[in-house]
Write a structure and sequence with these properties.
By secondary structure, this protein is α/β, with parallel strands linked by helices. It contains 13 helices and 13 strands. The structure holds pyridoxal-5'-phosphate.
Length: 402
Amino acid sequence: MELHERISAKLSKFRPSLTLALKQRVQERLAEGRPVYDFGLGETKGRLDPGIREAGERAFREEQTMYTDPAGLRELREAVLQWLGLSDVYGPNNVIICTGAKQALFNTFLATCNPADAVLLEAAPWVSYQPLATAAYAFPVMVLPLGTQREWLKVTREDVERNLDARPHAKLFLLNNPCNPTAQLYSAEELEAMLSVCAERHVYFVLDRLYWRILFDGRQYPEPRIDEQTRPWLIQVDGMSKNFRRTGGIRIGWAVGPDDVIRAMVNLQSHYTSGPATPTQAAALAAIRRPYDPGIVKELQAKRDLLHRESKDMPHVQIWPTPATFYSFWDVRGCFGRRTPAGSVPQNSDDVAAYLLDAAGVITASGAAFMQKGYLRLSFATPDEDIIHGMRAARQALAALA
Ligand code: PLP
């Protein structure tokens, strides 16, 4: 067997997830005793809520360690519908509990796409959408906004229509609202325009709403319309990893959608994971069964304000508004072609990210991971001192660009 044949063609082009690569760079710098201001990882920190911890502990103590229904614990599926305000619209058979939102997305691609079907993604698609689609033998396509609608890289109904016209094999359009990495929030009208075109054309509208609780300045989440027309075509993906503190590793997510699609996912999942770990399902149940504590949103809003204050008039950079999520999105194209004190000349967001890390110890996520090489994403779910010192270090480094 030739070397190039050892790994399947579809996986051989994969790069490791950005998150893991960043974690490694943080460790390396820390081991060298150099300061690190970590804006790279998209993970909530802080203390785990004792209610969540105790539910997980109790599940182990009470030996709740046998297989669950492959669709997930029935109580958890019911609680998911309550959490999403959908108990009047759907039943537990419309919900599948998965190993994180990632698996809910992978299940969605696997359950709906035939080989080479196109899946339409946003203009700055979250890093794992493409690898997951490719692994499901689907064909990822970015929907690029045209003309004046280009503002904040938001996609419109016209953009979706144009791409559907061009791709008769498009099976679904996937929207992340609010959006990682751009932090933009589509309004109810914008959402409805895209949802209705998908329903009219019998294309799935997949709504990844993983950050839906983290909305600032009193904003309300724009819920998608669910009625006879949209119900067969709407699949919602959500989970535990962003709306609570320190819960990314609990690895619980879910999908809610039409009976046949969810049934296909459960069937599939019964063969490849048998559903997620039982104790963490118990922990997730404890988390979402209660009224949501808005403390985390208040805290993140204060961090957003702090970051915006500390990064005001940052040289060569345009910082986007942050109505939601915990990401600040930076247009760094103004840095391209300038000279660093060491003599290099950044040409893309990878270069700017590398410069900020080397010169300032500031870790960011390069837009290249999101197919947008003019931008950086900074996660501000990080201690206040790191925001303050990190922004000062970044300012100094950027001001030194000639
Ligand atoms: N969707 C988006 C937009 C995300 O940002 C992430 C995680 O970063 C995921 C899905 C996957 O979430 P999970 O950790 O629950 O698998």
